[in-house]
Amino acid sequence: MLTRLSSQVFSTERTNNCNNMVGFTKEQIELCKKYPLLMNVIGKGAHKALVECQEQFSFHKWNCSHTDQKKRMLLGKLTSQGGGKLHFFRAITSAGVTDEIIRACNMDKYSDACQCEHVPNNINEKLKWYGCNDNIKFGTMFAHRFLDAKEKGADASGLMNKQNNLAGQMAVKQLTLLICICHCVSGACSMKTCRHSISPFNQVGNFLQKKYHSAIHTYFDQNKNELVPVNHGVSEHTKYDLVYLETSLNYCIKNNHKGILGVAGRQCNKASYGPDGCDSMWCGMGFHTKKGYVESNCNCKFHWCCSVKCERCISNVNYFYCRDQTKNQKKKRKNKE
Questions:
Q1: How far apart are CA 134 and CA 199, in angstroms?
Q2: Distance (Å, rounded) from C-alpha 116 to C-alpha 91?
Q3: Checking CA distances to 164, which of 19, 172, 270, 330 falls within 20 to 30 Å?
Q4: Contact 49/32 with Cβ under 8 angstroms?
Q5: Where in the chain is the domain with CATH 3.30.2460?
Q6: What pTM does this model have?
Q7: Where are the beta strands (DSSP E) in the chain?
Q8: What is the CA radius of gyration of the chain?
Q9: How far apart are alpha carbons 74 and 244 in whole angstroms?
């Protein structure tokens, strides 16, 4: 599991761990031995991606959680289905690994693995480049080699996974920022020094969320040996696009084989018409109500001078949760018997 890499012990002296990594391909083992310190970084990047994925889909039927999270490979069975939101999951994981490697390259601890990326020659006297650019080239290259090493041949799922890996890496690269500092007395910024830096990762998540909504439905053309759009009126995908093979997966009911938790027990918002609304999330299973209470400030008064004092009030609230359809079916069977 990629997230487990963050807790393994890797060093330039202890590369024997690389041979013991279950599920690693030959190329991944070679990369592990050449860049042992970056294995922990990959684990951190995968975990960062999982957290961001859960944030992006926190109010959807599938919230980036899956069954048996401790044992299931992050990029294993769950993403091999190629439908629903799983192409987003692969892209965000690729982006997380890329992002974390780039950030690690700025630290002295990893200087032997990735050197400072060359900055452009000074364009003119008013613009100077300083320090090191974030090592975007190395980060995207390493993520590409490591993640794509799992994909064998040029079959449909392999091509889909490689494309979504690439889209995640390109999202990080496309959102690169130009950071400049002005050096002047008058405030006219007559001289400035600049460097390239990557954006905060939540912005990458937002970017890929938009790409998810415009993802291209594809099929495998055996004659061309490539993925082509199902809708012939749609342009072929670019390196920035997400693609998928299946139209949808059923996220309503728990499916251990596909790693889907289902919606049973998920809290929903009865007043919302969005994806978090009970009407949208409950999948026709119904929902039940639990009574609770919240404590908050009330009867606040301004006191001269200068403070605001409040009382604490308790309010009764209702919480709504999706029903478990499997339990309902078991009850019906018992009643029939």
A1: 11
A2: 26
A3: 19
A4: no
A5: 267-335
A6: 0.77
A7: 127-129, 177-182, 192-197, 216-221, 226-229, 243-244, 267-268, 287-303, 307-322
A8: 25
A9: 18
- The arrangement of secondary structure in 267-335, i.e. its CATH architecture, is 2-Layer Sandwich (3.30)
Which positions ≥6 away from 13 have C-beta within 8 Å? none
Task: Count the helices and strands in the chain (H runs, E runs).
Answer: 10, 9
Q: Nearest Cα to 114, choosing from 42, 172, 175, 35?
A: 35
> For residue 160, what are its two tokens?
């889909």
Question: What three-state secondary structure class fits 132?
Answer: coil
What's the sign of the alpha-carbon dihedral 85, 90, 94, 99?
positive
Query: Tokens standing for 193?
Result: 């020094």
Read off the tokens for 269.
């918002």
pLDDT per residue, tens digit, the chain (337 aa), is 565 565 555 555 556 788 888 888 999 999 999 998 899 899 999 999 999 999 998 888 888 876 545 444 444 444 445 455 789 999 999 999 999 999 998 887 787 777 665 555 555 656 665 556 668 889 999 999 999 998 876 789 899 999 999 999 999 999 998 888 887 766 677 777 887 889 999 999 999 999 999 999 999 999 988 999 999 889 999 999 999 998 667 788 887 777 777 888 888 888 888 888 888 887 877 888 999 999 999 999 988 888 999 999 999 999 999 888 666 555 555 555 5
